[in-house]
Prior knowledge:
Bound molecules: NADPH dihydro-nicotinamide-adenine-dinucleotide phosphate
Strand content: 25-35%
Order of helices and strands: EEEHEEEEHEHEHEHEHEHEHHEHE
Shape: globular
Amino acid sequence: xxxxxxxxxxxxxxxxxxxxxxxxxxxxxxxxxxxxxxxxxxxxxxxxxxxxxxxxxxxxxxxxxxxxxxxxxxxxxxxxxxxxxxxxxxxxxxxxxxxxxxxxxxxxxxxxxxxxxxxxxxxxxxxxxxxxxxxxxxxxxxxxxxxxxxxxxxxxxxxxxxxxxxxxxxxxxxxxxxxxxxxxxxxxxxxxxxxxxxxxxxxxxxxxxxxxxxxxxxxxxxxxxxxxxxxxxxxxxxxxxxxxxxxxxxxxxxxxxxxxxxxxxxxxxxxxxxxxxxxxxxxxxxxxxxxxxxxxxxxxxxxxxxxxxxxxxxxxxxxxxxx
Length: 323
Ligand code: NDP
């Protein structure tokens, strides 16, 4: 038997139940992975509440690390005994074991343990594509990063500094500001009410070429006001709720701006992109340029408590669930 969190109806954290389910057999092209650590991500909240849809009953979770127990026919990417990690759909990671397409797995390098692997894959690969592909951040540029003390946020701050950028981090408390500053942010702004004015002051009026906004509804328009002409708004999350429909003319009025709504799924849909993204992440972690901060750990059976903390903005850095 496998133990898993199961959701029979969308709702608050309490809808997540710890249940026995039959251990899956790996089908053709699949590997059965015994999880040693499962990553907590904000997208798990969207699937639980129903903002993102999945057929019920469902098991949430997009990310884990562990050991390959068995493989199905035709699998070439991994073999039993390999230490592996994955991030991205389909959901189902909140379980002691799961069968998953083997071409979604990457082998964890020596020196990166399962807990770190589970903490970093989704948030770290997101930071990679945002900073290196959605907009290629260059040395000398100043950028804005929302939720700078969060899971993706702490990695973005460190990696952007490593690329030579000046990071203006946005957070909600002075303690989170300290954390962002200790992880690569050059400036930390508490609250976003006067963010454009602060960005104007810091950049001497130039404003920034890119804003990374994972907060969504509450900050979208404010973020547009931080951009230089022809700047890029990267709206990659909805922690405060989805962005409302808006008039495209706003982009013209604010300086011929660009907007993108990217997802990790698109950027890693090809196996070659997945492996390249993961390898670049492993490189910055192994060099020490990016440190993965696992600031909270919960038993997987108590995923509800982890969700409650995440939604209440009580977590910083990454959170791992232990089966
Ligand atoms: P975080 O650790 O960043 O947690 C979310 C943070 O958002 C909070 O700590 C809080 O920071 C901030 N926040 C602002 N407003 C709210 C609100 N109303 N309710 C709750 N939190 C709020 O989570 P993750 O690192 O897992 O994810 C960060 C974001 O990135 C999420 O929106 C997620 O969906 C998105 N994401 C998108 C991906 C993509 O490919 N598009 C991939 C991975 C993540 P503070 O208190 O400082 O404001």
